[in-house]
Amino acid sequence: MQTVTDPSKCERNEVKTETKMSEIVNKVANSKLIVFDLEDYYPDDHVIALDISQWLFGGFILKETEFREQLKNTDWSLYEDKYVALYCSEDAILPAWAYTLVAVHLAPFALKVIHGDKKIAVIDWYQDILNKLDYTEFFEKPLILKGCSKKDVPNEIYTLAIQKLMKVSKSIMFGEACSAVPLYKKK
Question: Could you state, in order of their start, the residue ranges of all structural domains in the chain?
C-alpha cells in the first residue's frame, strides 16, 4: 500500500498533466494542406480483364466459325458500363480481327474496350478521370499527392496526376502529411 504524504503535490501533478494534454495541437489537421488521393478515383469493379482464349479451340486455336458462334452466344451485358481489357492468356497466334470482333460485340455495352492487360485498362481509366476533373479547388493551394495507397494505383498515374496538379497548385508534396517529400513549388 502506498501512502501519500502531501496530497497537494498530487493535485499539482494532475493539473500539470491536464495542461500538457490540452496543449497538444494537431498541426496537420490545422494546416492548409489539401490531400489529393488517387485511391478516391480507383476503378474497383469498373475495370474487367477478358481472356479471349475461352473461345479458342483447345484454348489456343482459332476456328473462325466456332469462334463467331461462341461470341454470338455470349452474354455481353455482364460488361455493361465497364472498361474491358482484352487479352489472351495462351501463347496463341491470332489474327488481328479476332480482338476486333470481340470489341464489336462489347461496344454496345462496355464504356471502353482496350487491347491489353488490366493494368493498361486501369491506366486508361485514370487518364479519362484525370482529364475530366475540375481542378479549381486546388488553385494556388499547397497539396499532398497521397502515396502509400492500399489499392494498386499504378505508378504511371502519379506521373499523370503531378502534371495536372502542377498547373494549378502552389506547391505539391508526395506521401503523407507526417512524412511528405517536396516535389514542386511554384516560382
Answer: 26-42+124-185, 44-118
